[in-house]
Specification:
Blueprint (H helix, E strand, L loop, with lengths): L1 H6 L39 H15 L4 H4 L1 H11 L3 E7 L1 H4 L2 H10 L8 E3 L12 E6 L1 E5 L16 E5 L4 E7 L6 E8 L5 E6 L4 E5 L6 E8 L3 E5 L5 E8 L3 E3 L2 E2 L13 H11 L3 E5 L2 H5 L5 H18 L4 E6 L4 E4 L2 E4 L2 H16 L2 E4 H5 L4 H7 L11 H20 L2
Parallel strand pairs: 1-13, 1-14, 1-15, 15-16, 16-19
Antiparallel strand pairs: 2-12, 3-6, 4-5, 5-12, 6-11, 7-10, 7-12, 8-9, 8-11, 17-18
Helix pairs in contact: 2-10, 6-13, 9-10
Length: 413
């Protein structure tokens, strides 16, 4: 029975393929080159996962459709084939630098074969996408991080949009990958009749006119980078841009300073439209650090907001598996002495409770850091800054640790 393997799992160390029953693991001979700071621990598997997944398994067991029971089996096949995996990563500044997510791209796909997925229309300050760069002319970037924007409840998937400050405002998108013909889907908003144009380097052109005044999306195909997006009308908006190839993607929707309640500022109709359109196989949620730093942390409020986000994603991306990412150590150094913020332990406990209630895996980044001497050890190794963030190498290491945990988990199914 599939569930017997899932529930009895023992996660192996970095680069180790585990098999049960003496059979060859599906994803054998994996090496993530991740053991920079000691052996990773792997996923935390709450009790609630056993109960939740057993109920799901019982429903399909009579029909012997076990492969349809678990999205993890679909993920296994796509990782094995190095093709087609669709991962959406949503979180705070630990995601905003796009280093953790870029490592997942490099490990999940053959060289330079991966798609891009969703990107912000323009990157806010201190944010980036490693694969896609954008340069705007006449656009104002607006982030849902801030509650005083006047646009609460209007932000599309990812929580960042751009407003045309003049007629003919434009954005040029470039890619670091040798992508062939591009297909991109743009979420836009304006008054009925407002129009947008997308032009590729090869002369390809696509135009769209607003119909409803709500967030709408249109797709431009057969274009080569650089690609120019133009808004004909002042005060029209561009939201999420989904750059697609058939090979798969890893999204990077991280916003510096974001707390889990940021979803309350998003337009859920547009966010749901994005999830239904992109059909992710795996969604990673990474929140908690800024909630611990907020000075107004409420266990009940944090739990309620997290459960609400999970349930919304589950409803709009029913084929996706969801994994919660508990944040790296939230601490600071004062006169050479490290101090962990008092709310940090509470954050971790609530995330464990939420995972238990919904039967979800946890990837605990704080726990992973203990194998390299904890926060202080990672600082010495050059993997962590002395504030709450990791370094570039630290995020790439953490990406390898996550992938190693995922491979070990999948080999047990």
């Amino acid at each position: 029975m599939l569930l017997a393997s899932v529930l009895a799992l023992s996660v192996a160390g970095c680069g180790t393929a585990v098999s049960s029953g003496g059979s060859e693991p599906l994803l054998a001979n994996y090496d993530a080159d991740c053991c920079v700071a000691g052996e990773p621990k792997g996923f935390v598997i709450p009790k609630g996962m056993a109960e939740s997944r057993q109920k799901r398994a019982d429903v399909v067991a009579e029909e012997e459709e076990l492969e349809e029971f678990s999205g993890f089996l679909n993920i296994s096949r796509k990782i094995r084939d190095k093709h087609g995996l669709r991962i959406s990563v949503i979180g705070d500044s630990h995601i905003a630098a796009d280093f953790f997510t870029d490592k997942l791209r490099k490990l999940s796909f053959a060289d330079n074969s991966y798609g891009v997925g969703g990107v912000f229309p323009l990157q806010p300050k201190y944010h980036q996408n490693v694969v896609i760069t954008s340069q705007g002319n006449g656009f104002e970037v607006i982030s849902s991080r801030f509650s005083d924007t006047g646009y609460n409840g209007e932000f599309p998937a990812g929580g960042v949009m751009a407003r045309a400050e003049k007629n003919g405002a434009s954005i040029v998108y470039r890619s670091s990958l040798p992508l062939k013909d591009m297909q991109a889907t743009f979420w836009v908003k304006g008054k009925p009749g407002d129009s947008f144009t997308v032009t590729g380097r090869n002369g390809g052109k696509s135009s769209y006119s607003v119909k409803t005044g709500r967030w709408e999306h249109f797709t431009a195909s057969g274009m080569k980078f650089p690609v120019t997006f133009t808004a004909a009308n002042k005060d029209s908006f561009i939201g999420t841009v989904f750059v697609d190839t058939s090979s798969g993607y890893v999204d990077s929707f991280g916003i510096n300073g974001a707390q889990v309640n940021i979803f309350k500022r998003w337009n859920l109709e547009a966010f749901g439209d994005y999830l239904r359109f992109t059909k992710p196989d795996l969604v990673l949620l990474e929140y908690g650090a800024n909630d611990a730093l907020s000075g107004s942390f409420s266990e009940k409020g944090f739990e309620k907001d997290y459960l609400s986000a999970i349930d919304f994603i589950s409803s709009n991306a029913p084929g996706a598996e969801i994994i919660l990412m508990s944040p790296p150590t939230v601490a600071k150094f004062t006169q050479g002495i490290m101090k962990v913020y008092p709310e940090f332990d509470s954050i971790r406990k609530v995330i464990e409770k939420v995972a238990d209630e919904r039967g979800l895996l946890i990837f605990d980044m704080h726990d992973e850091m203990t194998r390299g001497g904890g926060k202080a050890g990672w600082v010495k190794l050059g993997l962590s800054k002395r504030d709450v963030h990791l370094t570039r190498d630290g995020y790439y290491t953490m990406g390898s640790y996550f992938y190693s945990a995922l491979i070990s988990f999948l080999n047990e199914i």
